Amino acid sequence: MRAASLGAAIAMIITGCGSEGGDTGDNGVSPADADLTVVTGVYPLEWLAQEIGGDTTAVVQLTEPGAEPHDLELTGRQIAEVSEADIVFHVGGLQPAVDEAVDQEGEDASLDVADIVSLRPADDGEDEDDHAHEEDDGHDHGEHDPHFWLDVDLMAETAEALAERMGEVNPEGADTYRQEAERVTGELAAIGEEYEQGLSSCEHREVVVGHTAFSYLTDQYDLEQIGVSGVDPENEPSPAQIAAITDVVKERDISTIFTEPLMPAATADTIAAETGAQVEVLDPLEGVTDRSPGDDYPSIMRGNLEALTTALACE
Question: What are the CA-CA distances from residue 272 to residues 16, 66, 227, 253, 266 (Å)?
């Protein structure tokens, strides 16, 4: 029944509205003029596809700017884009609507990051934020934490896998994709070195965040993530959870509570008011907004590093 409805939606888009060959991907390249089309559902994958594919690849982002990617629901037109894509570049479990569309219409084109890198379990956290996983509202994004892109080494692995797949789809561009992937992995390595140096000597190592989206980053650089909520941003913290984090902030003399560009700051503000801590932005890079500390993946990662080194009093 579900497959029939997906197929009907695609038929309606194609036959009822036409193919509209003049449309362009989010990077300004028309699928009609491109060597290949890559569809993504979250910003870091869009960035990789644009960097590696360049102006010969149409990159279609399914999540509107400023929208929470976990909550994505696909329109009939977007389902058609998944069906017609050369590569559907996604993270299995992050966006159920994308997973469903891939299963029904785009399985042959699927490039799932979960098949490329080893994703962390979604409930893998520190003792102090174990309480963040006690509540479950049924809003499930899978068994794994999808925020792998905060680990530049995993991003590099993913870049290489994407370039390889793009070369398989369009062999004439294989050398170019490989070269661009090498350039991207070099930039990622440079960012990693900056993090290693910037976070090597800090007065504090506790990172208090709205939801535990930063495990890949904090574990990589020996920081301690303390989350008000679990990995799913839809889980609202209870008063008991907020009180527990407030106590930790007071006991450890933590100076900064981090909020996110796509999340309300009300909870962070409440904890800050009780503890005298400041509220700053730490971006999980699920999308780019005017609250992000940069305008693309590298600049946001470096903005996050600046925020961390300031909050943790790093030398």
Answer: 54, 25, 14, 12, 10
Within 10 A of 5 (CB to CB), how many other CB atoms are there?
12
pTM for the full model?
0.85
CA distance linking residue 20 with residue 273, whole number of Å: 53
The answer to whether the beta carbons of residues 25 and 37 sit under 8 Å apart is yes
Instruction: Give exposure, 117-152, as e/b (b: 16+ Cβ within 10 Å).
Output: bebbebeebbebbebbbeeeeeeebbebbbbbbbbb
* Cα gap 51→53, rounded to integer Å: 6
**Distance separating alpha carbons of residues 72 and 5, to the nearest angstrom:** 18
Per-residue pLDDT of 75-127, as tens digits, reads 999 999 999 999 999 999 999 999 999 999 878 999 999 999 999 998 544 44
What is the rounded distance in angstroms from the CA atom of residue 205 to the CA atom of residue 207?
6
The string of pLDDT tens digits covering residues 45-65 is: 999 999 999 999 999 999 998
Quick count: other Cβ atoms within 10 Å of Cβ 230? Answer: 25
Question: Cα angle at 132 between 124 and 299, to 5 degrees?
Answer: 70
Q: What is the CA radius of gyration of the chain?
A: 20
